[in-house]
């Protein structure tokens, strides 16, 4: 009952970030959002159409995108326990000096966390002087390759486009677990390692002057500049000439905890005559992933974070994505539309019952996969046997 009272009080006292005096709308060219896709009807009359999971714009993007500059912003960084066993995962709660919740986009309560920070002597509170930017942090996880790129690194690009001199920033507060791939991405995007402050390094932060990107994030709603931002922030340039023949790539999720493809052996049997290589992106460096996707003629894969690498593909490259109906996220369809790629979809025919659709395993019809590949590539080529690069997956 006490918790409910605090939550109701928090709702009454909360302040939308866009309504604060320090909020400045972004330029018009940064306001665009991808349109809502229709249902996917291709499977056939006896199979229900795929319904895309698109977040309500009233929740995801109520009002203009922009930057909030806030003096004395307080952030509670609270551990989040999930099946991913991500020890660096954190839910954030933002509040002002009077402990009112500062809402960025969709609802996150903050008053209870603010009281906890005030009253619990065990909480480690860190004060960050000067200018601090907060990147990412739409979801609590810290292992997801897609959200690190599209939420955190695109935040960096967005702040620069809004006029912030990034060289003047003292601290970069962001999801960070120190993995090799995060180090590589940060270096590519020009973030000095000594300025990075992991969200998991304290229970709360007090920022002398915060620069907070306020925009659509999360993948179920996407800005129409994501592909351009990914390339520009990381200095990506397509090689002038492909290194060798175009490759046909199947991206396996291997031992992933999230959404394993339950009938992958049957799918591999179906695609082998078309000359596909089997690749696990988690076994490759960031640079090697970028080069791999730049060399691809076609990519076939279950829905997963590694497909953010389609941002590095050449115009006209094809993506065939296996999509679980319970987690029909259009983020990679949007990315392909922006990057000039050809997108096709194979919806699931079965999914594990119960539990969170984010983690439920699923299966696709190998015959449907074959039909799509014939349509895109023509007849199969003599099988050379898939080459495999396997390691535990990350997302």
Lay out the secondary structure.
Elements: H1 2-13, E1 15-16, E2 23-25, H2 57-60, E3 66-79, E4 90-95, E5 102-103, H3 111-119, E6 125-134, H4 145-161, E7 171-174, H5 180-188, E8 196-198, E9 204-214, H6 226-233, E10 247-251, H7 264-271, E11 277-279, H8 286-294, E12 296-302, E13 318-323, H9 331-339, E14 342-347, E15 350-351, E16 362-363, H10 366-377, E17 388-389
Parallel strand pairs: 1-5, 6-7, 6-9, 7-8, 10-11, 10-12, 11-17, 12-13, 13-14
Antiparallel strand pairs: 2-3, 3-4, 3-9, 15-16
How does this structure look, described?
The structure is a single chain. The chain is of the alpha/beta class. It contains 10 helices and 17 strands. It has helices at 2-13, 57-60, 111-119, 145-161, 180-188, 226-233, 264-271, 286-294, 331-339, 366-377, and strands at 15-16, 23-25, 66-79, 90-95, 102-103, 125-134, 171-174, 196-198, 204-214, 247-251, 277-279, 296-302, 318-323, 342-347, 350-351, 362-363, 388-389. Strands 2, 3, 4, 6, 7, 8 and 9 form a 7-stranded mixed sheet that branches. A 6-stranded parallel sheet has the order 14-13-12-10-11-17, with helices on both faces. It has a two-stranded parallel ribbon with strand order 1-5. Helix 5 (180-188) links the parallel strand 7 (171-174) and strand 8 (196-198). The chain is globular, with a radius of gyration of 22 Å. It starts with a helix and ends in a 6-residue tail after the last strand.
